[in-house]
Amino acid sequence: MALAMKVISQVEAQRKILEEAVSTALELASGKSDGAEVAVSKTTGISVSTRYGEVENVEFNSDGALGITVYHQNRKGSASSTDLSPQAIARTVQAALDIARYTSPDPCAGVADKELLAFDAPDLDLFHPAEVSPDEAIELAARAEQAALQADKRITNTEAAVLTATTVSKFLATATACCRVTALRVIHSPAV
């Protein structure tokens, strides 16, 4: 239960980071564009691989990404960055603005009207923090590989067994509205 609470705390911290990134991007785009859309995400997790019961690899990941689309005089420019620092966000917004200057006008391009945005999307109940420590992930991967080897005597070799547990948080917003923050915990079954 303590690990599940830690995951929930991480998601809350990620939410604050994502909200700040979106706010920064939209603030930088305002006044320089007719509208903007921002999507930002943060992914954290662990991936473990074992072969013949021995640990081959343990990887921890923590990745972020921000994408912004700006609209100016019916022209659209998009840019993205994996760096969520304020300086990188400023460069990304400027890149999107620069790109918009060189694209062809499209009278249908623009931010969706506020009434078309999904403010009341149903909660699909996808966030289920699992208590998987690195040691437990190693044990589960090794057990999966052993089960595969014992399932049929013709199976004599595996490439490895892999278990991945990932939490993904996403935040979507436009210059006129904040749509949705989602958190998703993905536990991939061991693959052999």
Automatic annotation (TrEMBL):
Entry-linked Gene3D superfamilies: PmbA/TldD superfamily (3.30.2290.10)
Residues of the Metalloprotease TldD/E N-terminal domain: 36-100
Annotated GO CC locations: cytosol
Domain Metalloprotease TldD/E central span(s) in chain numbering: 128-170
Pfam families hit by this protein: PmbA_TldD_1st, PmbA_TldD_2nd
Biological process (GO), any one: proteolysis
Any one GO molecular-function label of the UniProt entry: metallopeptidase activity
Role, per record: Metalloprotease involved in CcdA degradation. Suppresses the inhibitory activity of the carbon storage regulator (CsrA).
Family: Belongs to the peptidase U62 family.
Name recorded for this polypeptide: Putative modulator of DNA gyrase
Source species of the chain: Escherichia coli
